[in-house]
Specification:
The chain is α/β, with parallel strands linked by helices and about 260 residues long. The protein has one domain: Aldolase class I (TIM Barrel, Alpha-Beta Barrel), CATH 3.20.20. The chain contains 12 helices and 8 strands. It has an 8-stranded parallel beta barrel with strand order 1-2-3-4-5-6-7-8, surrounded by 4 helices. It is globular, with a radius of gyration of 17 Å. The protein binds phosphoenolpyruvate. The site of phosphoenolpyruvate has 13 residues, from strand 8.
Length: about 260
């Protein structure tokens, strides 16, 4: 059984006190629906990782992620944060390859592969994001774009990494992120099935079918989560805007728990 996952990406939002109260509010709501089968991940900004990780005690099935990491463990890289630092702050996951990083910070496939390897070396589980722009979809090259993003990074990893569940994929069409226009359930399912088929060309069917969760991201909210999560190849969501409201993120998590039948 593939793990069902809801992950909240807070991006560059919230001050310290706001972040702590958002986490507290969410934890209180989540405690009403305990589930260690649906994995819940929250990705606050770097300065809050340690504090929020500390609050996780007594919250089974909830984990903390960073939103990025540098590809070196330490050194003269002013302003950067390494995977080893993230791990030492008790976060367990890291988002790598988010389209905002690719777009605004010009992160390339080559750099992303280095980051993923460094994160894995530091025992972080990676949420690796892939997705096409609207121009690419309109030019009908969206499948080849996704194939290339997988080839650049995921295809370089060993079977043992994927079979250990150390890579979670997030399909996030760039045109759906923060726009209020989500991919339809059919579009999400079509691409998730395509991703799984590509992975089966490289890794064993058992690993791909059982161990690689593929999340959908892009304007996922309380109104559309049920339909998106009901698709056979959609294993949950990476949620941006809606994760900034404790009640909405808790409701999306509840939908996932309901669908997982747990
Ligand atoms: C994201 O940034 O990963 C995301 C999916 O954002 P939103 O839900 O706001 O579209």
């Amino acid at each position: 059984m593939r793990r069902k996952i809801v992950a909240g990406n807070w991006k560059m939002n919230k001050t310290y006190s706001e972040a702590i109260s958002l986490a507290d509010d969410f934890f209180q709501l989540a405690a009403k629906d305990p589930s260690d089968s649906v994995l819940t991940i929250i990705a606050p900004p770097f300065p809050f990782l340690r504090e929020i990780s500390k609050c996780l005690e007594g919250q089974p099935g909830i984990f903390v992620a960073a939103q990025n990491c540098h590809h070196e463990n330490s050194g003269a890289f002013t302003g950067e944060v390494s995977a080893s630092m993230i791990r030492s702050a008790d976060a367990s996951h890291v988002i790598i390859g988010h389209s905002e990083r690719r777009q605004y910070f010009a992160e390339t496939g080559e750099q992303l592969l280095k980051k993923v390897n460094r994160a894995l070396e530091n025992e972080l589980t990676v949420i690796f994001c892939i997705g096409e722009t609207s121009e690419q979809r309109n030019s009908d090259i969206h499948f080849s774009v996704i194939r290339q993003q997988l080839e650049e990074v995921v295809f370089h990893l060993g079977e043992e990494i994927l079979s250990a569940g150390k890579i979670i994929l997030a399909y996030e069409p760039v045109w759906a992120i923060g726009t209020g226009v989500n991919a339809s359930a059919a579009q999400a399912q079509e691409m998730h099935a395509f991703i799984r088929e590509q992975l089966r060309g490289k890794f064993s069917a058992a690993t791909v079918n059982e161990k690689v969760s593929i999340l959908y991201g892009g304007s996922c909210n309380t109104g559309n989560a049920a339909e998106l999560f009901a698709q056979p190849d959609v294993d949950g969501g990476l949620i941006g805007g809606a994760s900034l409201k404790a009640a909405d993120f808790a409701a999306i998590r509840r939908i996932m728990i309901g669908q997982a039948g747990l």
